[in-house]
Amino acid sequence: MTKLENFALSNPISVILGKEPKDFTRDDLIRIIKEKELERITFHYTGIDGKIKELRIPICSTQQAEMILTEGERVDGSSLFKGIVDAGSSDMYVLPVYKTAFLNPFDNKSIDFVCRFLNKNGERAPFAPDNILHKAHTMLKERTGLELWALGELEFYLIGHTNNQLFPMPKQRGYHASEPFVKSAAVLNEMVRYIAQISGNVKYAHFEVGYLERIESDYPELNGKSAEQVEVEFLPTPIEDTGDIIVLSRWIIRNVAYRNNFTATFVPKLEIGHAGNGMHFHLQLMKDGKNIMTDEKGALTDYAKMLIGGLCNYAPSLTGFGNMVTASYLRLVPHQEAPTRVCWSEMNRSALIRVPLGWNNLSNLASVVNDCPVEPLEKRIYRQTVEIRSPDGSGNAHLLLSGITMAAEWGLTNKDKSLDIANNSYVSTNIHKSSIENELPELATSCVESSEKLLQHRELYERDNVFPPQVISFVAAQLQNENDKDLNQRLLSLPDDEKLKESRRIMHRDIHKN
User: Fold this and answer.
1) 3-state class (DSSP) for residue 13
2) Is the overall model pTM greater than 0.70, yes or no?
3) Can you name the residues that pair with 290 across neighbouring β-strands?
4) Interior CA angle at 80 toward 91 and 457, to 5°?
5) Helix or strand (DSSP H, E) at 85
6) Is 193:301 a contact under the CB 8 Å cutoff?
7) Beta strand 344-346 with 353-355: parallel, antiparallel or unpaired?
8) What is the per-residue pLDDT across 74-108, written as a single tens digit (0 to 9) for each?
9) How far apart are CA 132 and CA 473, in angstroms?
10) Are 81 and 49 in contact (CB under 8 A)?
């Protein structure tokens, strides 16, 4: 086997073994444990709350390590899935996925894995969010012969004390800002280093629009501190892997921030009049390893339009998984580059679904700006995606991606309906500056309304037994508990100072959500 190239951000395990992660075996991992003199195996898995959990297993012998990597461990499902799994039948197995193995950047004596949940019969637990995503994608592949790939955009604020007041950042002018105007670039570099080594799929990172010089809050971890908005964007992967990458990356981001005396928050909104945190996803359909979103002339294919039609059909209820706290609906307001209506467009950030630039019919662009000869790449890579822009940092990544996958499958297997929806949902202008806005279906305006839409359309998710009914009921109940019906009307009825204070209370109470 040819040895893999060793870059600074290559997966260290891949470099040692000379293998891609998908080829890791149990014997390979035992070798790593011995060569690196590791003391622990750490299992990671995602609970119903969307956060990473962990189990630390000391390694005392080769036999024990082999047993753990082969048979997994036992955990309490009633604690990890409280409200879904009963305490009377709560035992579950967690099994490591070998290709996810990584050296823990925060514990130099541990080899870590992402795990899957199995039930007492050794089958994938049907209520686990990552298993729901697996089932949804398997159905899509079997019925269409296609794969759905996705890349996420994680937006978050880094909050801390900034003692150096030189080169202050203007309000709402942080997009792609550089040092010395931003003060947390070194922290971002550390985050990206670890995410890249573990996932191998970071596209880029940059500072975003939002900047708060001084936060006013009742919460001491926020009050008086400054906040810089950041985005990390990933490369496309099969959508099942995308869920794990998002959850692991949020775990890494929070850990690095904590170790540098910052708070990282994915809260949908931190301050009125300042940019909120989205968790957008770009999607592409793949056939035989090739992106099929555009034809040879660069036009969107029917496949791409069917995907768009499916997303539009599911959009009103997808907020149930992608916008899960009251603060979400202080972000989904007009004129803030956040969608409020179900529609799609090219390069239009007021639309729910955006078709971004995709290098269609363009190649070897470096030759335009360089005087030296630039040899074209041997193989052209098609990069067109469509982006769904409603989700935010409160979303449950695996459940959201499961719903998106079912929307894609519906669109691809209901061609006439989905193409008709796509044709009727297209807009060519900023909808907030056009009368067409009133003709388009609305997104939910509160968690309670989102819950109602999810329950009204639960058959879209429960069909073919992909989403268990108890998961839909559980999510709907969580949304109902936000008790935010008529949120915007209630806020508008308050005097300005009380409205601002109440808005901050709503936004800041969820700074550690997901």
Assistant:
1) helix
2) yes
3) 287
4) 110
5) none
6) no
7) parallel
8) 999 999 999 999 877 789 999 999 999 999 999 99
9) 15
10) no
